[in-house]
Design brief:
38% strand, alpha+beta, 3 helices, elongated, Alpha-Beta Plaits
C-alpha cells in the first residue's frame, strides 16, 4: 500500500501553528496541515516538571520533502527544542496522489 509521511509537532498557541502551517502549504512542503484544539502537555524542562496548554499540528507530506519540512519547522518554530516527530503512514492511493501532487517543488 502506498505511503506518505506525517510530521507531528506542538505549539503554545494556535496562531503560531497556523502561521507555520500556512507557510508549509504555501511553499509546497505540505499538502495538508491539521491543527488540533488545545490539550495539556506535561513534560520536564530545565529540571522542573512543567504543565502547559498546547495545540498539535500534523503535517502531511511526501517522503521526498521530509528533510526540507524538518528543517523549515525547526527553523521557524518558536520553541528552543520543538518536538518534531515523523512517521510513515499507509494511505489510500488517491490520498497519496493528492499529497504527491501538492508537495512537488514549484
Amino acid at each position: 500500500m502506498p505511503s506518505i509521511v506525517m510530521i507531528y509537532t506542538t505549539f503554545s498557541n494556535r496562531h503560531d501553528a497556523e502561521t507555520l502551517g500556512e507557510d508549509l502549504v504555501n511553499r509546497g512542503y505540505a499538502a495538508c496541515v491539521n491543527i488540533t484544539p488545545t490539550h495539556t502537555s506535561i513534560y520536564r524542562w530545565e529540571g522542573q516538571v512543567q504543565r502547559q496548554e498546547e495545540v498539535a499540528m500534523i503535517v502531511k507530506t511526501s517522503r521526498n520533502r521530509v528533510d526540507e519540512v524538518m528543517l523549515e519547522v525547526h527553523r521557524l518554530h518558536p520553541y528552543d527544542v520543538p518536538a518534531i516527530t515523523i512517521w510513515e503512514a499507509q494511505a489510500h492511493p488517491s490520498f497519496v496522489s493528492f499529497v504527491d501532487e501538492h508537495t512537488k517543488e514549484f
